[in-house]
């Protein structure tokens, strides 16, 4: 494993994506860059590479600290990367914005009632 691991396998092993196929799709849609470059899923990830990952809900910028092509526990997966300070600050700011400014329809479960629609129209 000292040479490198396929990018899609590493993303799956580090638990950024639930399946390898989701990781491949994200790489193909340019949601993952390695050292600022667009890459393919078969690209080899090496120690020290900087990855920018957009998994749909969060955006991460991480340094590769370990290599694995086997999906293990979350504690083991957390040792495979180290998040940069800029990324930590950005994710905290986004989480705070989500907490303070909720989407209007998030509290409605299922189809909105007439009362729910009136409340949405007020906004």
UniProtKB/TrEMBL annotation:
Looking at the keywords, is RNA-binding present? yes
Check the record and name the PROSITE patterns matching this protein: S4 (PS50889)
Region spans: Disordered? 102-123
The UniProt record lists the keyword RNA-binding: yes
Q: Looking at the record's lineage, which domain of life comes first?
A: Bacteria
Alphabetical UniProt keywords: DNA-binding, RNA-binding
Q: Which Pfam families match?
A: S4
* CDD domains reported in the protein's UniProt record: S4
**RNA-binding S4 domain sequence ranges:** 5-61
Write out the similarity annotation. Belongs to the HSP15 family.
Record-given protein name: RNA-binding S4 domain-containing protein
Species of origin reads Duganella levis
């Amino acid at each position: 494993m000292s040479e490198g691991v396929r990018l899609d396998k590493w993303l799956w092993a580090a638990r950024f994506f639930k399946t390898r196929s989701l990781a491949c799709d994200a790489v193909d849609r340019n949601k993952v860059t390695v050292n600022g470059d667009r890459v393919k899923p078969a690209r080899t990830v090496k120690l020290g590479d900087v990855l920018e990952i957009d998994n749909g809900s969060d955006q991460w910028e991480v340094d590769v600290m370990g290599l694995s092509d086997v999906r293990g526990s979350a504690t083991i997966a957390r040792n495979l990367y180290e998040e940069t300070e800029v990324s930590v600050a950005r994710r905290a700011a986004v989480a705070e914005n989500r907490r303070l400014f909720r989407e209007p329809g998030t509290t409605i479960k299922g189809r909105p009632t007439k009362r729910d629609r009136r409340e949405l129209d007020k906004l």
